[in-house]
UniProtKB/TrEMBL annotation:
Reaction(s) the record says it catalyses: GTP + H2O = GDP + phosphate + H(+)
Entry protein name: Metabolism of cobalamin associated A
One GO cellular component term noted in the UniProt record for this chain: cytoplasm
Species in which this protein is naturally found: Seriola lalandi dorsalis
Family: Belongs to the SIMIBI class G3E GTPase family. ArgK/MeaB subfamily.
Function: GTPase, binds and hydrolyzes GTP. Involved in intracellular vitamin B12 metabolism, mediates the transport of cobalamin (Cbl) into mitochondria for the final steps of adenosylcobalamin (AdoCbl) synthesis. Functions as a G-protein chaperone that assists AdoCbl cofactor delivery from MMAB to the methylmalonyl-CoA mutase (MMUT). Plays a dual role as both a protectase and a reactivase for MMUT. Protects MMUT from progressive inactivation by oxidation by decreasing the rate of the formation of the oxidized inactive cofactor hydroxocobalamin (OH2Cbl).
Subunit structure: Homodimer. Interacts with MMUT (the apoenzyme form); the interaction is GTP dependent.
Gene3D superfamilies: 1.10.287.130, 1.20.5.170, P-loop containing nucleotide triphosphate hydrolases (3.40.50.300)
Amino acid sequence: MPHICHKMGRFGLLRHISSLPSPRTCCLHQRVFTGSHPCYQNTVLGHSCQHSRGVSTALSQHIHDLSGPEQRLLTKLFDGLIGGQRASLAESITLVETQHPRKKELAQVLLQRVLAYRIEQESRNGGKPVAFRVGLSGPPGAGKSSFIEVVGKMLTGRGHKVSVLAVDPSSCTTGGSLLGDKTRMTELSRDMNAFIRPSPTSGTLGGVTRTTNEAIVLCEGAGYDIVLVETVGVGQSEFAVADMVDMFVLLIPPAGGDELQGIKRGIIERADLVVVTKSDGDLVVPARRIQTEYTSALKLLRRQSKSWNPKVIRASSYNSEGIPEVWAKMESYRDAMLASGELQGRRRAQQKVWMWSLIQETVLCHFQNHPSVREALPQLEEKVTNGAISPGLAADLLLKGFSSSSS
């Protein structure tokens, strides 16, 4: 997995988490963003160096010093980002998605500043999130892109700012992606109150990229109050998006036949809302039947929330029937979860889940690059291929060699 091995930059952060803060490193980010947006100055002087002192210290020690051009770049990106400039947001997401070690470090500095700015905004909002995150998944051909365009245009017409993070699958052979979702959203892509960002999975499981969670943070920092995350495919491994959004919406076509059997129980259990798409013309009757079947099926599943029962609703992107009702259900969900405090708790739990996900990826890369493992790996792979030893025994030998040489 070559793409994983670029993540070693994060591993260096772990070595410094327990270090004591020093006056020099605590103020690194203040120096980076001196003279930046006035709304941010209180955040830097107040919350950032008190609440996140340990993280800032670790990050600062990992980066050492920023050059003049790097400081100017981060200042320009941050000012443009919180000023609502779409070009700055796009450039910031590109910085987060990069595999270049030094640029990944710069991206973490930028993310810490945006996080502090977002926390300041939430404190002014009574502790409530300033944005609503919605994840959308479904089988190919369910009409996800068409649905997002219709919903997005309706929301921008109501005064919302909408960002769409569309994830496209990467080829297993060439590593490339079509990134064609944006071409299906022609009207929304021209809307100045909307931002669409297609990204490749680059081999990451779960239907999202490993940087999608960070891109969500950047979109919220740029003032987008609705963040829609469109994922690829559907199945047992394709609902990682549910661990980074406030609401998970499953889109299903009305005449999928046996293809619907590919949607296993795991993803149904995670759905907060099921939308039967393409409910128009000759497909109205099949759509009603599917709606009835899924409504009955959801009653048999254990409830995820004490404040919300998952709903099944029909909609058509072709004639916009049912689209306002879908958004009304989403608003009802958000209000119920906010009133009970479950939404805030869900976000806190998601941060922990995502941290451990990144730790697993980073530790795997560290394991693959360890000298003892790299030395023994070719011979053991050959023995496993020839059937001389079992894969389990080979894994145990590699782990023992890794543990003994690391201790």
